[in-house]
User: Fold this.
Amino acid sequence: MIRLNQYTEIAEPKDPAPDFPKYTFSLTPISELNQYIGNQGAFLDVIEKITAVSNAATLETSSGTIKLRRIIHLVHHSENMIELSLFGPRAQEFDGDTVYEVGRKSHVIAIFVGTSMKQYKGSPPFLSGTATCRWYVNENDVTEIRDFYKRLPIQAEPVKKLHLKNHEEIQRQIETKSLLELREINPFDHAGLKFECTTVIIQVAQNQYWCYPACTACGSRSIFDGGKYHCSKDGCTGTSIEHRYKVCLIASDTTWQLRFMLFQDRAMQLIGKSVEKLLTTYRKSDTPPEISALVGQKFTFIVRVLPEKKLIDHDPMFEVLNIKKIFGKQFQIPDVKIERKPASSTTSTSEEHNLPPLVPICPKAWENKSTSSSSQQIYNIDDSQIELTGILQDKTARKALDMKNEEQLQDTHEKEHLSQRAKRSFYIASRHT
Ligand SMILES: [Zn+2]
Assistant:
């Protein structure tokens, strides 16, 4: 490998030596590729048979830029298929149409050089071909390609055509949902689906660190034990870390409130400073003002539900994949927050994580308000909060809340008096979960 730095001078030779190699590569067996996942310094050269090729389609990256991507399916004799994604100019330069035409009747064997192994959370590892990537396809004067060819059956299976959607097409398919609708998303069934929502940040989730030590090799959480960091991902031996953002925000759109996670790039985009920079001033347990400043801001997010490992007893949580629109600070923050007053002395752990209260399910709850039954939960409106989560169904409660909202607009000297009124209890409708 040759490393270039700022002192490297590159000159194009006028008369290259006749023995200057036309092809140059150092092949890595497909079975060894996984050990290079996330290793940005490892440029990998592979020889494979092409079994499928896609069109070059536009893709919106996590940072919001649009670039081209083409995917190619590669198979090494009897081994499993690995996907290669060519990005940017490489996606366009690869002659997919000719590969498809030739591949209808004969084998297409390619050596791709300068690729790297990547893996996104929840998807299989893949080869990535960017600026450093080049390829040699069906070159008869490459011994390795000829040897590979000899081991293939005479009858070639046609190269398949894959259709990759353009980002506009994908964008059109993203459903817009209210937070109440998002609440119904099933983390087990709808893991990969993207949704659009417009919401105002009302709070930074408490009792949570805003960053975490991430393994530099794979990005998974690292655990400090025995004087050093260990990656929590099975099979990863990474011991070096960098702190990355994991900011949990509570947002509302007047229909409901939900938790949204902003990981590294999205958080950087909104906060404008690196985690390391903030860590020089603030502790992990303190919310930096740079993060608190997000409260009151309105955004249109593209989100997906975060996977759950076990059955959930709280509303699903969403990861912000893209920030589609920034509206800025809102004059009015939506709604009133309802806090659950525990019916018994037992403490709800969900309260500690700012989750909406779980309401027991019981029929005919509203027929008999005068008796205290298990189907009815008493809630107190905390006048320091202004979030109505939309589960009030009782007219009395609604009226009282309207009164409270009006009162909030009045003179702040009445606050003492107001707090008495706001401490009224309300019956909240049971909701089937
Ligand atoms: Zn790791």
